[in-house]
Structures are given as C-alpha cells and as structure tokens.
Amino acid sequence: MKLENPYPDEAARRYRDAGYWTGQTFPDLLATAAREHGGRPAVVGRDVHRQRQRWTYAELDDRARRLAAGLAGLGVAPGDRVVVWLPNVPEYLEVIWGLFTLGALPVFALPAHRESEIRYFCEHAEAVAVVTVTRHDRHDHADAARRVAKDVASVREVLVVDEGLPTGEPATPSAPEPDDVAFLQLSGGTTGLPKLIPRTHDDYLYSVRASADICGLTPGTVFLAALPAAHNFTMSSPGLLGVMHAGGCVVTAPSPDPDTCLRLVADEGVTIAAVVPPLAAVWVAAAEKNSPELPTLEVLQVGGAKCGSELAARIGPALGATLQQVFGMAEGLVNYTRLDDPDDVVLHTQGRPISPDDELRVVDPDSPDDREVAPGEVGALLTRGPYTIRGYYRAPEHNATAFTADGFYRTGDLVRLDPGGNVVVTGRVKEQINRGGEKVAAEEVENHLMAHAAVLDAAVVGVPDEFLGERTHAYVLPRDPDEAPSPADLRRFVRDRGVAAYKVPDAVEVVTSFPATGVGKTSRRELRAALAQRHTEQR
Ligand code: J2J
Predict the structure, then answer these.
(1) 512 lies in which domain range?
(2) Which of 216, 304, 401, 492 lies most in the core, judged by the most C-beta atoms within 10 Å?
(3) What percent of the chain has pLDDT over 70?
(4) Number of folded domains in the chain?
(5) What separation in Å is there between the alpha carbon of 232 and the centre of ligand 1?
(6) pLDDT tens-place string over residues 294-324
(7) Which residues contact 252 (CB under 8 A, 6 or more apart)?
(8) Cα–Cα distances in Å, from 272 out to 123, 141, 243?
(9) pLDDT mean over 520-536
(10) Of 324, 342, 382, 338, which is closest to residue 358 (Cα–Cα)?
(11) What's the complex ipTM?
C-alpha cells in the first residue's frame, strides 16, 4: 500500500540524499538483528500463560517466520490490514514481526480499547483479522473481537494468542518497497472518530534509528516496556524498535505499577524505561519510600504529557537515573532532551527535534494565514519533516484542515522555542484532553453521551487534575430536566457502549443550560472554553 498523501518528490529526494531514508524496511531490521545479534536476548517477559520467556533474536526471527507462514496459510496476504489488540507480552513482538515478515500491515490498537473502537478500526482499515487474547484487564477481548468479526465483512479471522497461533515452515520475509505503508498507528484524535496514521518503512525507521542514536542504545541496552507496547512512544522513541535496531533486550511489563516495574528494573538489569508523568510520579514516590537498589537504570524517559519541573527535579535523586523529556506524536515529530543537556534544559523543556530537517513553525493561532509569532513567543506548533505524515489514512476532509497547504501538520500544541531551539509545551489549541498521556477527543465522548435517548446535548472539557494533569468533565443537557439521567447512569451508558475506560468521563454534571458564551453563533470551541473557564473559577 502506498501513501494517499505522499511526500512531494523534491522532499523525498532531499530526505534520501541526506541519508535519512536509507531504503531499510521492517523485514530488513529483523533480518539484520537476527544476523548480527542472533544469540542475544531480544525479549524477556511473561507470556500469555504467565510463563517467563526469554527469546533470542534468532528465536524471535524463527517464530516470526513460522507465524508469517501460518498466517499466509489462513489467507492473510501482503498488504492486508490486521488489528493487533494485545497487552505487553513477548508474543506481542512475535505477532507484529510475523505480520511485518508476511508484509501485512498491523493496526495498533491499545489493550484499553473496547469493542466499539476495535469495530471502527476494522471497518475503517477493512482489516482481514484481529489478533488478541482471551481476556485482559477483566474484559473478554476474544468475545468482543468475535462479535466484531461477525458484523464486519472484511474480518475473516480472530486469532487468540493463548489458543495458539497458526504456524508453518519458516517463510521467506516479504520484500516491501521502502515507500510502502508499513502499518497504521492511532491518533489521539480531536474529532468524533479516531484517525489512522499511515507510516512508511523509510520514514518510521529513520526516526527509530536516529532515536536509538540520540538515546545511546547499544546491545547492552535493556528497555522496560511499561506503557502499552502499541503506543508510539513505547514502540519507537526509541522504544522496542530502537532497542531491536541496537540489538538490545526488551522486557515486557505486565503492569506499569511501581511494584512490578521497579522489581523488573532490579531483576532484569533494566537500563532505560519510558513512562508518562503520572507514572513517573508514582515510581518516584515508591522509590523515595523504599530506596530500592537500581544500579543499572541509566535513563528514565518521560513524555506523552507535560512533565512539570518539580516532578522532573525529583526523578534523578529518587531513581538514580538521568531524566529525558520526550515530546512526540504518532503523526511524526519527536523531540528529546539530550542525555548531556544541562539541568535547566532537562528540567524545564521538552527537548528538540530528532532531525536537522524537522521544520518547526510557531504561529499565531488566531491568524488565518498562519503568521509566525516573534522568536520566543508562544504560538501554535506546525511541523513538517522526514518522518511526519502529510495526511491521515482515508480522511480527506479532516486532512484539509489538519495540514497546511504546504504540508505542515497542525499539531494543536501551544509551544515556545527557547534560544537553543528547545521546545517548551505550554498548552494546546486542539479539542483534545490529555489525561496523563491518554488522549481523549472531546467530540468523540460527546457523541457517545448524545447517543443516550434522554440527552439533548453534551460538552466535554478538560479540568486541572493534580495527578493526571487533566481529567474529563462532561456537561450534559437533558431533553427533559424532570427526567434527566443521573451522572452514574450516564457514565455507565458510555462504558457500556464499549469504549476504553479512559474515555468515560471522570465527572458528569447535568445542567439545565450551557452558559452563554457571548452574542451570536456559539462554536463548540467557545462553548468548551467557557465551560472549562467556569470550572476553573469554581475552584
Ligand atoms: C507535553 N505534551 C506532550 C510532552 C506528547 C513519544 C512521546 C510521546 C508521544 C505521544 C509519542 C508531550 N509534553 N512531553 O508519539 O513518539 C502531547 C502533545 C502531542 C500529543 C501526541 C512519542 N508528549 N504530548 O504522546 O500521538 O499534545 O504521542 O501533540 O499519543 O501528546 O500524542 P500521541
């Protein structure tokens, strides 16, 4: 599959000439790792049967090729989309590498997603299969996937890892073209429906190699996958792919909690881990209390949401590790503080881009022609570069506003740049709530609430939260105030529609009218801003 919104020829040529796009593909990455690091451990962790596994690169390569053959036997073909809906288990790597080896395209769902999201991914990507587990997090994933398969015509197979994966004689890896789409990643989203992000071998693997370099990864690296493996941060910044590029070892954590993870750090000799700020906070608190011996831990990466400077300052002393701030997005651009940056950069900024050819423009969010603000001033961040998409998958209408005419992605983030080119994230203009790194599109949740027969209208806003940074608050206008559903009913209603728990509003407030937001036509944005403001004033 090729990109619907390809990089212009001139840009593609420039990225190749600069040595960013090398022509390396996913199958090449695994083949190289198996050749150069065959006997080294690739992944360590508890499998779907809770048995401890430790697979070398040679073993992982063999498993991937057998699975590719098994999938082919079921009729899965190169170019087909397959929704991967798995927790952090070693088999996660087996499955994604089996798909890459076959040339099928993973669609990376999160373990927290539920039936309605999986159904949507399957429909939108016309997936032929879903790979999942029987049960995870007290939820019957396999049953949900089977219901989806019954309804969505394209889905022919539901593969349940703990029931056994298909296998065959090791397949010869596929040979995709480097500008083919390698997979579909998920966007946090700002609209009613999540967007899918097409990433090519060339663009993504450039970001992976460069990230591994920036983070100083070596064959001695031991990376703890504490956040969901499918998240772009865990996958590629430098993540499990960066570690595999370097020949290091991925440790899969069954849960991100500090008991589990700090023990794994000590037992497995973890050198680097990636977390969101609320998780960093609980790890730090646990370490401050118990002073565990974590001699191997060199780097704690914190990203996905803003890491406040107070939390940032506690990380080094508590964990004995260097903090690295990471400001990235599944659409592309990733910024890192560098490991040798001075404290003021590491504690107070979200770092600078991977590539000299990442273009960052900071513009007045109210300017119709995207006028740049003065250097150092706050504005909306637009970006373009060698690993940032030029358009979402099958979303021409949304693309018309999400990208500028000259191909810059509107990140929706408010930032300023310091004199050293480091980005400081100060807020956002997009209609999204960042719930401790989990992204919630206000409109998506509003649509779920409005599906309730007794609801006339709903507006979902982010309100400050000490632990998560933000949490969600839904204002609901009932059709008939005398027969208004209760907040608990409405939260249950949203959950029962089969959406990820993190999208269920943290609080629901039933109101008789939305506050006036001035004269004339009220936009959703103004309404949400007024409601968020009202909440802040109440505090
Ligand atoms: C403030 N906001 C941040 C940060 C992301 C690496 C790291 C994170 C992601 C990710 C990723 C932030 N401070 N340090 O894909 O490769 C918010 C911004 C951004 C959005 C992207 C990676 N780090 N954010 O979080 O696609 O609002 O990617 O635009 O999930 O998260 O979200 P997502």
Answers:
(1) 434-538
(2) 304
(3) 98
(4) 2
(5) 9
(6) 999 999 999 999 999 999 999 999 999 999 9
(7) 43, 44, 45, 46, 88, 89, 90, 92, 225, 229
(8) 37, 30, 10
(9) 78
(10) 382
(11) 1.00
CATH number at residue 527: 3.30.300.30
Q: What residues flank ligand 1, with Cβ below 6 Å?
A: 188, 232-233, 236-237, 303-306, 325-330, 334, 350, 411, 413, 425, 428, 434, 439
pLDDT of residue 100: 98
Among the three residues 147, 176, 205, which one is the final residue of a domain in this structure? 176
Which residue owns the Cα nearest ligand 1 atom 28?
329
Say if CB 472 and CB 440 are below 8 A apart.
yes
Q: Where are the alpha helices (DSSP H) in 269-404?
A: 277-290, 309-319, 343-348, 396-402
Summarised one tens digit per residue, pLDDT across range 44-77 is 999 999 999 999 999 999 999 999 999 999 999 9
> Separation of 434 CA from ligand 1 center, angstroms?
9
Beta bridge partners of 225: 252
From CA 11, how far away is CA 90, in angstroms rounded?
38
Percent of the chain with pLDDT strictly greater than 90:
94
Please give the distance, rounded to the nearest whole angstrom, from the Cα atom of residue 329 to the centre of ligand 1. 5
Q: What is the CATH number of the domain that holds 107?
A: 3.40.50.980
CA–centroid distance, residue 305 to ligand 1 (Å)? 6
Q: Is the pLDDT of residue 521 over 70?
A: no
Q: Which atom of ligand 1 lies nearest, measured to the CA of 351?
A: 14
442 Cα–ligand 1 center, Å: 17
**Cα Rg of the chain, angstroms:** 23
Choose the residue to mutate in 329, 423, 438 for probing ligand 1, maximizing ligand atoms within 8 Å of C-beta: 329
Predicted structure pTM score: 0.97
